[in-house]
Design brief:
Blueprint (H helix, E strand, L loop, with lengths): L8 E5 L6 H15 L6 E5 L5 H8 L4 E5 L16 H6 L2 E6 L2 H6 L4 H13 L3 E6 L3 H5 L3 H12 L11 E5 L13 H18 L2 H7 E6 L7 H4 L5 E6 L6 H9 L2
Parallel strand pairs: 1-2, 1-8, 2-3, 3-4, 4-5, 5-6, 6-7, 7-8
Helix pairs in contact: 1-2, 1-11, 7-8
Bound molecules: 2-phosphoglycolic acid.
The site of 2-phosphoglycolic acid has 13 residues, from strand 8.
C-alpha cells in the first residue's frame, strides 16, 4: 500500500442495501465522476454477488474493489462461506473484517476477527479491521479498554512483511447509521489509543508505511474533512452517505 499511503482513503460500505443491478449502476455513476481522482484512494465494497459486476466497472480505473467479509479458511467444506482466494480471483483488494454489525448479528468474536485478518493477509488482501465501543461500554467508561482489547486480539500473531497493508477503522457502534458522527477530537483521541497498541505490535517503520487509521460512523459531506488528513487519521469508512451517487461524489469532492 506504500505508494499511495499519503493519500486519504475513502471506502464505501454499501452493506446489504443494494441489488446487484443497483450496485453496478452506482459503481458506474461513481466511476464516471471520480475515476480521474488521483488524490484519494477510493474503494467500493458491494455485496458479494455484485463483486464481479462492480469489478468489471472499476477495471483499469483508479478505484479499488473491497469485500464486506471473508472466511478464515483457504478452501474446504464450509457451506456458504467465501474464501480470501476467491475474493482475490474477483479482483478484490480490501476486505472489511470485524464490522460491528457482524459482531452483533453473526456473533463474531475477537478470535474470529483475528482468524479472518490472518487469512486475508495470507492472500495479500488488505484487511479493514473495524473496532468500536457500544453505547453501554462507553457509558461504563470502558471505551479505550474495549478498543485496546479488540485491536490487540485481532492482531495477535499478525506480521506485516513489506507489500502487505492493514487498515484499522475506529467505528463507534452507537454512532453508525445515527446521522451524528462523534466529535473529530474524540475520533483523534481514539486513533491515538489505537496507534499506541500498534506501536507495541509493529516496528515504527511498518506502521508508518503499511498501516492506516481511519474513522467510520455517520460520515457525511459536512464532517468528512475533519476525519481525513488529521494524523493519525487518514480516511473514512462511509455507509449511508455512500448509497447515493450524488451524495458520495459530493462527499469525495470535499477532500
Ligand atoms: P454509516 O455506516 O456511515 O451509515 O454510519 C458506517 C459503517 O457502518 O461502516
Amino acid at each position: 500500500m506504500s505508494p499511495s499511503h499519503n493519500k486519504p482513503l475513502v471506502l464505501a460500505n454499501w452493506k446489504m442495501n443494494l441489488s446487484v443491478r443497483q450496485s453496478v449502476d452506482l459503481a458506474r455513476r461513481v466511476t464516471r465522476s471520480l475515476s480521474r481522482t488521483t488524490k484519494i484512494d477510493l474503494v467500493l465494497c458491494p455485496t458479494f454477488p455484485a463483486l464481479p459486476g462492480v469489478a468489471e466497472v472499476v477495471k483499469r480505473k483508479s478505484i479499488a474493489l473491497g469485500a464486506q467479509d471473508v472466511f478464515w479458511k483457504a478452501a474446504g467444506p464450509y457451506t456458504g462461506e467465501v474464501s480470501p482466494a476467491v475474493l482475490r480471483e474477483l479482483g478484490v483488494k480490501y476486505v472489511i473484517v470485524g464490522h460491528s454489525e457482524r459482531r452483533q448479528y453473526l456473533k463474531e468474536t475477537d478470535i474470529v476477527v483475528q482468524q479472518k485478518t490472518l487469512a486475508a493477509l495470507a492472500q495479500g488482501l488488505i484487511p479493514v479491521l473495524c473496532v468500536g465501543e457500544t453505547f453501554a461500554e462507553r457509558q461504563a467508561g470502558q471505551k479505550d479498554v474495549v478498543i485496546m482489547r479488540q485491536v490487540t486480539a485481532a492482531l495477535k500473531g499478525v506480521t506485516l512483511p513489506s507489500g502487505l497493508g492493514l487498515v484499522v477503522a475506529y467505528e463507534p457502534v452507537w454512532v453508525i447509521g445515527s446521522g451524528q458522527a462523534v466529535e473529530p477530537r474524540e475520533a483523534l483521541h481514539t486513533a491515538q489509543v489505537i496507534r499506541q497498541v500498534l506501536i507495541d505490535i509493529f516496528p515504527p517503520s511498518v506502521i508508518e508505511r503499511q498501516v492506516r487509521l481511519i474513522y467510520g460512523g455517520s460520515v457525511d459531506t459536512t464532517n468528512i474533512a475533519a476525519f481525513v488528513r488529521q494524523p493519525p487519521l487518514s480516511g473514512v469508512l462511509v455507509g449511508g452517505a455512500s448509497l447515493s451517487a450524488k451524495q458520495f461524489i459530493d462527499l469525495v469532492r470535499q477532500l
